[in-house]
Design goal:
Keywords: Oxidoreductase. GO terms for molecular function: flavin adenine dinucleotide binding; monooxygenase activity. The structure is a single chain. The protein is built from 10 helices and 23 strands. Helix 2 packs across helix 10. The protein has 432 residues and is of the alpha/beta class. The protein has 2 domains: 207 residues, FAD/NAD(P)-binding domain, CATH 3.50.50; 205 residues, FAD/NAD(P)-binding domain (3-Layer(bba) Sandwich), CATH 3.50.50.
């Protein structure tokens, strides 16, 4: 891995930059790629080291859930020999290392941005753990997943039970002997539950409202079909949910062992204990909502609905593809079980997989809604000179992923270049 790591002394030799990029993940490095292409001086500030999250917050068996051909970082598309495969953790890191070396971004690592505010002259003051900087423009590229969600009831669980968040999980062997409760069934929760299950651990899974999709359907990866259907080109304003889609939980599926469905019902047949949403701990008993049947049925409905949309596309296009029947449940719960005795269960570990909340508290700017998310159009905020990149559905499905961040970064840098060419600060109004 190689990048232009900037020393604090060198960074402060020029305390002012045309653009400061806050965050050195794939989004921030993509912005740097286009800024360099445009000849715009800039500095990338990274709290840890570049692409830190991919290296430190993924479990050992982690792999991509989208095929390798969707890895399309700017100037650095996937060039391997398995475009329809799914890179494992070490392969992802190798891919990122190549991108880092190619971009050669000016990065000041181990530098936390403490405060950022625009002054009366329109210049941004950026206070960091490595001193003060100023910039004409700021791009926030720190993503939207900052603070792990752990419910307050966790404080009342027995001290002898290990509690970790999904980003801390590595493999079944590092957990204490005994059963494991996984809370949440989104992408991380479902895949971690599978990892534990395959590792021979007794798993209890609190199933949430996450949808699921097929890995392969009618002879192809579902992602390939959806790409042909231009789903990944759909802008957020054309999605049926509009901006509400940003709150959706990702569909659970896996690229493990060449890719397959994740079917929680099949896990149940094999001994995994499924419950509804975890609600509370009372008198030593964990309490669950009576919504397991509803959540499983809803996930399957989404699965079949996506496949039906592919069927319709195949029919419209006259494509010759093998027929497949709709999914039929392989297991149904006898009824809703809403509690069990925690001590008797043998649970020694709990893994919280219920997501993250954003933390943009360090940004002093009137651009946030009541839930702490920035108002923007394709990353351009109502405040002149302030931009965001790498957020879920910033513009399309791929905005927070390897597949779509290049398009978003190019658009944001084009907007920066246009505002600089105008030689006057952009108007404080939401860009069209």
């Amino acid at each position: 891995m190689s990048n232009t790591t900037v020393s604090p002394q060198a960074a402060h030799a020029n305390r002012h930059y045309t653009v400061i990029v806050a965050g050195g993940g794939q989004a921030g490095l993509s912005i740097s790629y286009y800024l360099k292409e445009a000849g715009i001086d800039h500095l990338v500030l990274e709290k840890h080291s570049v692409t830190h999250t991919w290296r430190s917050q993924r479990w050992d068996a982690f792999c991509l859930v989208t095929p390798n051909w969707q890895c399309a970082l700017p100037g650095y598309p996937y060039r391997g020999d398995d475009p329809h495969g799914f890179m494992k953790k070490d392969q992802i890191i190798a891919y990122l290392d190549g991108f880092i070396a190619m971009v050669d971004a000016p990065v000041l690592e181990h530098t936390e941005v403490k405060r950022m505010k625009r002054d009366v002259d329109g210049r941004y003051n950026v206070s960091t753990s490595n001193g003060e900087f100023t910039a004409d423009r700021v791009v926030v590229a720190s993503g939207g997943y900052h603070t792990p969600i752990v419910p307050r009831m966790a404080e009342r669980l027995p001290a002898g039970i290990l509690q970790i968040q999904s980003s801390q999980y590595r493999n079944p062997e590092v957990l204490p002997d005994g059963a494991v409760l996984v809370v949440g069934s989104g992408q991380s929760g479902a895949q971690i539950a599978e990892d534990l299950h395959l590792g021979g651990r007794k798993v209890y899974l609190a199933v949430g409202e996450a949808p699921r999709c097929a890995r392969f359907y009618r002879g192809r990866d579902v992602v390939d079909w959806l790409a042909d259907m231009h789903y990944y080109d759909m802008p957020v304003e054309q999605h049926p949910l509009r901006e509400g889609v940003r709150d959706n939980t990702n569909h659970y599926v896996t690229g493990r062992d060449g890719g397959r469905d994740i079917d929680l019902r099949r896990f149940a047949l094999e001994g995994m204990e499924l419950y509804g949403r975890l609600e509370d701990l009372r008198d030593g008993r964990l309490q669950f909502s009576p919504n397991l049947i509803e959540n499983l049925d809803s996930a399957d409905d989404t699965y079949n609905r996506i496949n039906a949309s592919i069927d319709a596309f195949i029919d419209r296009q006259g494509i010759d593809a093998p027929r497949e029947a709709a999914y039929e449940p392989v297991w149904r719960p006898d009824g809703e079980r809403t509690s069990f005795d925690l001590a008797a269960s043998g649970i020694t570990s709990i893994i919280w997989c219920i997501g993250f909340t954003p933390d943009f508290s360090w940004i002093d700017a009137p651009v946030f809604n009541g839930r702490g998310y920035p108002a923007h159009t394709r990353g351009i905020t109502p405040q002149a000179g302030l931009y965001f990149i790498g957020l879920p559905w910033l513009h399309t499905w791929g905005s927070g992923r390897f597949s779509g961040v290049a398009r978003d970064a190019a658009y944001v840098v084009d907007a920066i270049r246009a505002s600089l060419d105008a030689s006057v600060p952009a108007t404080d109004s939401l860009a069209a």
